[in-house]
Amino acid sequence: MTGINTYDKKSGWIEKILRCGIISWILVIVIWGLGSLSYDAYFLPSPYETIEGLKEVWNNHTLQRDIVASLFRVLKGWLSAVVLGVPLGLMVGTFKPIKWLMDPILSFFRFVPAIALTTLFLMWFGVGDESKIALIIYASFFPIFINTIAGVALADFSLIEAASVMGASKTKIFFLVIVPSAVSNIYTGIRLGLSSSFICIVAAEMLVGSDGLGYLINSSKLYYKTNCAFAGIVSLALLGFLSDKLIQFIGRRTLKNFGVK
User: Which CATH number fits domain 43-258: 3.30.360.10, 1.10.10.10, 1.10.3720.10, 2.60.40.420?
Assistant: First the structure.
């Protein structure tokens, strides 16, 4: 029995290590480091050279400024997309006349990538934050909108029928049956919308702008500072990763009753 307990403890520790992702990150860094030995720092900087790039842009306060600028645009655009996408998705998924009216237009535009509209948005909204935020809203709206509609479709028809038989109004059925059924999918759409926001902001800042992580990556390349470009990429990945983890933490704590895990 002691041997079995010892084995269980060891396998438990191994499982914890694997689940936390430490081994995955070690493998990535090792492969990256070995790969960088075959190239010079301009083509593929090593992990150490990337850390040096991070120190450089941190010490001259460039990284802090760019992180704040990008996060502001991402949060404003993403939250605006949530405010637009969730109610519209609930309405389109619930009310057939609205679906018939809006579905052809929205189904057409969701296949047009945000990057294809960059030039038009710059013409319409200018080179300031407005065009970048508008692009983020466009890019993150469709994952939220489509997942919300899918969530409405998962509503249990027998519950809707039972509520109707018991005399519940359409408004009560909407808020007490349909919306709770869609919460898990809405949550997934919100997470996907956030990842789309980070992808879009980099493209927008690379094309035009004077700050942000996309601008940092692009300008570093122009000045042959590939390690600083890698520093911007790593910073962007960390920001996206931590933002998603924060949403997962909040979701697990507040939406557990709706099937969010």
Answer: 1.10.3720.10
Closest by Cα among 239, 209, 220 to 49: 220
Q: For 165-191, how does the pLDDT look when each residue is reduced to its tens digit (9 = 90+)? A: 777 777 787 887 888 888 899 999 999
Tokens linked to 118: 């960059």
pLDDT 10s digits, 21-61: 678 888 888 998 998 888 887 888 999 999 999 999 999 88
Mean pLDDT in residue range 99-118 = 84
3-state secondary structure of 186: helix
Look up residue 55 and give its two tokens. Answer: 């120190």
| pLDDT score of 7 | 46
Please tell me the distance from the alpha carbon of residue 197 to that of residue 178, in angstroms, as a whole number. 28
Say which residue the tokens 């038009």 belong to.
Answer: 120
Tracing tokens 């992990």 back to the chain, one arrives at: 47
Which tokens in the block code for residue 211?
Answer: 């700050």
- CA 178 – CA 172 distance, rounded (Å): 9
Helices (H), 37-61: 47-59
Q: Would you state the structure tokens that stand for residue 34, as one six-digit string? A: 């070995």
